[in-house]
Amino acid sequence: MSRVCVHGLGHVGLPTAALLALAGHPVTGHDIAPALVARVNAGASGFAEPGLDALLARVIGSGALRATTCPATAEVHIIAVPTPLAADRRADLSAVWQVAAAIAPLLRGEELVILESTVPVGTTEALAARLPPGVAVAHVPERVLPGRALQELVHNDRVVGGLDQAAASRAATLYRAFVRGALVETDARTAELVKLAENAYRDVNIAFANELAAICERVGVEARHAIALANRHPRVNILSPGTGVGGHCIPVDPWFLAQAAPEDSVLIRAARSVNDAVPQRVLAQIRAACARFPAPRVACLGLAYKPDVEDVRESPAMAVAQALLADGLPVVVSDPFVSEVPQGAVRREAAEAIAGADVVAVLVPHTVFRALDSRLFAGKAVVDPVGLLG
Ligand SMILES: NC(=O)c1ccc[n+]([C@@H]2O[C@H](COP(=O)([O-])OP(=O)(O)OC[C@H]3O[C@@H](n4cnc5c(N)ncnc54)[C@H](O)[C@@H]3O)[C@@H](O)[C@H]2O)c1
Fold first, then answer.
1. Average of per-residue pLDDT values in the chain
2. Number of H helices and number of E strands within the chain?
3. 81 Cβ closer than 6 Å to some ligand 1 atom
4. Averaged over 257-284, what is the pLDDT?
C-alpha cells in the first residue's frame, strides 16, 4: 500500500481520498481551507454527495484518512484543485502551480504525481518541469457526475495518461484499488484532450438543441414536440433545450480546447456563444409574459445549474432570477436543494410560490417538481424552457 497525499478536498479530491483510504492506502488530504480541513476531520464533507459523509466517518474514524492544511510527504500525490476560467477565457492554473511549488521540496525523485484537475493540453508536461527529475507524472482526469460521485468513481472507465508508459502503469495500479471500470492507459496529452473533448461534445450538442429551440420559437413550432419527432430517426438523438449551461465544467472546459487553436475551434466557440445567450432569451420570454400584468408577481422554480443538485456555480437559473430582481419585479424562488436565495427574493415551497404568482418560470426540472399538480399552473402565464410541463 502506498502513502497518498490528495491536494484539494473538494467534489473530486475528497471522495477520491476517501475511497483510496477505504481501499487500504494511508491517505493525507491537504487543503488550503482550514475550516474545510476541520470539517473533514470531524467526518463531514460540507456538500451533498450521497454516501460520502458515512464513508468519511468510517475512514476518518479508522485513521486511514486525515486532513491537514500542510502538504505531506507521500509516495503518491494526487492534485485535484480548481482550474477555473481566467478573465481572458484561458485556464487559471495558479492552484496547480501552488501545489507543485508546495510539494517540490518534499519530493525525492521516486514519487508518482497525478494531476486530476481538468487542464489544457500540455499542462502535465509543464507540471513535470516544475518537479524534481525522476518523478513519474500522469494525468488522470475525472468525469464524475455530482450527486453520483461515489458510484461513478468506482464504476466509470478512466483514461490514465502517463508522461511515459511507466507513469501510466503506476497510476493505473493505484486506481485499480477502487475502480471497477476499465483503466485505459495512454499518453498525458491525449488524456488532457479527451477530458476537454468530452465536455466540449456535451456543450456543442446542448447548443444545437438550444439553437433549435430558438428557431422553433421564431417559426411557431413547438420545439420539444419537433425534437421528439426528429429523434424517431434511428440515427438522430437531439438533446433537450433548457435555460442554458451552468456548472464549473461544461461552460469552462471548451475554452481550454479553444485556447490551444482558436482558429480551428469555430464550432466550439460558437456553441459557447449559443449557450451563453440562452438565459437572455428565457428572460425575454418571462418579461413578455410579465407585460400582460399591471403588477406582475413572478415565481422562479429552480435555481441550481441542473436538476437535483444544490450547486449554483455558473447557474443560468440563478442569473435569470437575479436579472428579474434587477428589473424591480417581486420574485419568489423555490428550490428544494439550494439554500442560497438571490438578494431581494423570497423563498417558498413550490406550490405556494406558484399559487402567489402571475408568471411562473420553470428554470430547472428538478424531479420533485414533476410531482406538482398540473392544476396549480391553471390561469398562470407559464414560461417553461426546460419542458417540465411537457
Ligand atoms: N466537480 C466535478 O464534478 C468535476 C468533474 C470532473 C473534473 N473536475 C475538475 O476537478 C478539479 C477540482 O474540481 P472540484 O469540483 O473538486 O473543485 P472544488 O472547488 O470542489 O474543490 C477544490 C478544493 O481545492 C482546494 N484548493 C485550492 N487551492 C489549493 C491549493 N493550492 N492547495 C490545496 N488545496 C487547494 C480548495 O480549497 C477546494 O476545497 C477541477 O479542475 C475541475 O474542473 C470536477
1. 97
2. 13, 13
3. yes
4. 97
